Amino acid sequence: MIWRPSILAALGLSLGSCAVNTPNDHLSPPPSETPGARLGSMAAPALINGLPIDEARLNQRLREIGGALALEEITLDAQLRRRFSSLQLALPPAAIQAERDLFIETLASESRTAPEHVAALLESLRSSRGLGPERFEALIVRSASLRLLVRDSVQVSPESLALAYQLESGPRCRIRLLTIPSAARAAEIRAALTPSAPPIDPAALPVLFAEQALLHSVDAQAAAGGLLPNVSPSDPSLAPAIRSAIAAMSPGTVSDVLGVEGGFALVLLESRSPGSELTPERRAEIDTRVQRRFERLAMNELANHLLAEANVVVLDRSLRWSWEHRPN
Hints:
The radius of gyration is 26 Å and the shape is extended. Helices cover 51% and strands 12% of the residues. The strands form 3 sheets. Strands 5, 6, 7, 8 and 9 form a 5-stranded antiparallel beta sheet that branches. The chain folds into 2 domains: 5-156 and 283-324, no CATH class; 171-273, Chitinase A, domain 3. By secondary structure, it is α+β, with helices and mostly antiparallel strands.
């Protein structure tokens, strides 16, 4: 099972050293009961037209809607407490605050949001993911705990850093991409775009390629005429065959038919732009970003391992339905 992104979020947060408290000691206390929600000796979770709703029925539906996710979170919290206890570790308040700060910093950076709008974006994110006061605080504590456990074991290879530098400051290309299931059809399109006589005007080639992409391509860039305006030839998200083709092509040319996952591709290389020098400050920023990315991967792996180790027995019928139908 892959630990859900809503739990680990996109946290590239840093951690301090060990100190005094175990993972859930810093969770916010539950909010006080709303006045008027207690009738006699029974606490009603809500009133409809002045009448209390049946709490048992509400709980059944809540368990079916989100019981599996809640149980996963609680299970991981319990597993983290056991791991901290067995290692005689404690989580300092400073680590929790650092994780919270990094959550906000990462959110602002990855969304390219101006500082004055980050609070509104955070509120929107929490609303969309059901991260109320208790769940959000638990998420931060959980992430800080996972980071503390993996921090010393994460090693970033020189090759990973070199690739990150290349992606950040290396040469860039403007290309158009067309992907279709049929190799024969791809060959026909290529022949139409590269006739021996009369040759196509180089200025018209991007327009003609875009038309073919709009008509035939099945990839995500089809609606934009296959345009990828600023890609690195080293980008690992590109298929290896496409990366190799770009490296060998001249601007204004169409690639051979390339075998890619799910079909066959053609690439038009429109232009190249040179890379730039990285300042020491920028290198340090990239180093930190790569370190955090590797930490996130290790945190995700540890979370899955801890969940797999847990012996969870679900007794409630509604919760069991949710647990058995949770996504893998």
